[in-house]
Amino acid sequence: MSTVSTSNVKLSMTPLFSAEEIAARVEALAAQIDNDYRGREILMVAVLKGSFLFIADLIRAIKTPTVIDFVRLASYGSATQSSGIIEARKDLEMSIKDKDVLVVEDIVDSGLTLESLRTLLLNRQPASLRICTLIDKQAQRVTDVPVDYIGFSMDDGFIVGYGLDLDERYRNLPDIRVVEGT
Fold this sequence. Notes:
Layout: E1 2-6, E2 9-17, H1 19-36, E3 42-48, H2 52-61, E4 66-74, E5 87-90, E6 100-108, H3 112-122, E7 128-137, E8 149-154, E9 158-160, E10 176-180
């Protein structure tokens, strides 16, 4: 366990997934995605900000031809639980009509943000739409959004590192840690 301080508050963090475990899981996901998309081009849609490290590693591991675009949605603000209100802060810059789209998300928690994005994207008529998440967290799930590729599953707890943040901090940690006392 490590202790860090931010804004005069000390936080305890317990390691959950090491950098080595994450790297191995990203390679396994890439192999699965390559197998499923063989012979096609993937339009990968990264959900910012949390997925930026994950998609960078994933896209380098994937052998299938890819293009990438970004969306930015928010439902947390500076809190540790989703507000349930989805705010779109950046939309796609390219058309997804008739494209094979793979949404890459850092974490699926309540599922509300991802379900909102999924509905928006399906209305734009992609040839296919699949979802890949680094972390699938079931305890807070409110909607049954389909997730096709899952890095790790966990029940509950607030996590940071490898792109995941607490009030925009700790994204730079190379591993994923559970924050105690949030």
